Amino acid sequence: xxxxxxxxxxxxxxxxxxxxxxxxxxxxxxxxxxxxxxxxxxxxxxxxxxxxxxxxxxxxxxxxxxxxxxxxxxxxxxxxxxxxxxxxxxxxxxxxxxxxxxxxxxxxxxxxxxxxxxxxxxxxxxxxxxxxxxxxxxxxxxxxxxxxxxxxxxxxxxxxxxxxxxxxxxxxxxxxxxxxxxxxxxxxxxxxxxxxxxxxxxxxxxxxxxxxxxxxxxxxxxxxxxxxxxxxxxxxxxxxxxxxxxxxxxxxxxxxxxxxxxxxxxxxxxxxxxxxxxxxxxxxxxxxxxxxxxxxxxxxxxxxxxxxxxxxxxxxxxxxxxxxxxxxxxxxxxxxxxxxxxxxxxxxxxxxxxxxxxxxxxxxxxxxxxxxxxxxxxxxx
Length: 381
Fold this sequence. Notes:
InterPro entries: ABC_transp_permease
Protein name: Xylose transport system permease protein XylH
Membrane topology: Multi-pass membrane protein
Radius of gyration: 21 Å
Shape: globular
Subcellular location: Cell membrane
Organism: Uliginosibacterium aquaticum
CATH topology: ABC transporter involved in vitamin B12 uptake, BtuC
Order of helices and strands: HHHHHHEHHHHHHHEHHH
């Protein structure tokens, strides 16, 4: 019992570190079992491209869960929006830019539609998501006539399959590190200004050095194959934008407030219904982006696209430390959770593990993640 209590305390305090250790162990195991094939540049590039789609869904889902809701329709919505994009390309020959704008707008509207039912009509989000799962999948079957639609536009396909030039990837890596240094120094200066506790300088320098090593290793490995995949770049942009929104905007603070104490937040003058509706709209946008990326990656819109995608997104959030009680969670944690899920899928497929064992392993890990959250919550009360 003491061991489990110590384990939960370590996980609660150092969640991201614990997740990174978990990834290191998973990768080491699959590298050992595959005789190093798992850690080749080509496989890691494919792994990150595969993970990017789940990470897009998880990035929207984490805010929904933080606000105390859930959305079970995201897998079907991804499939529907990806199918619509394929139809617009093949049947109407729309330029990719216009196709992108239409699908993103449609995703936003579908998300707001879900959010209206939850926030204003007060239908439980579980039921709204369950209904959406069936309705959107049915519409997808009607739109595609139950068959796969091959995409013709090279620009569209490049959205999911293209790579950044190596020189561009190197420049972006340097800019990213410089931005992190500036943000760290600014945060340190603000803490000094407001007379708050300031971490030792060596500690922050150590973190920056570790980040620099990770970024350099990440870019070097991907550049040794063909470069940074475009979907991975999009995922990193979402990570930065959503993390900034969560930490540095009024809307971000309201998301956590709604999930922590809905009634107190409402009484303080916040339009909690509008916040929840906006979050579902944001979730719809992420479904649209993920649907476009998935269709482009496969060069086809499929009636089975996005199947079980909602479970991977939800599992990524919980594995990444998002609390099922609401009010707690991070975008970075959810994306690392998506990387864990994708690593398990990729590694077990590489080892030809039976599909039923893959489902058992992923379900067990989800159960363990939620158990840790429940136990951690019990210890805090």
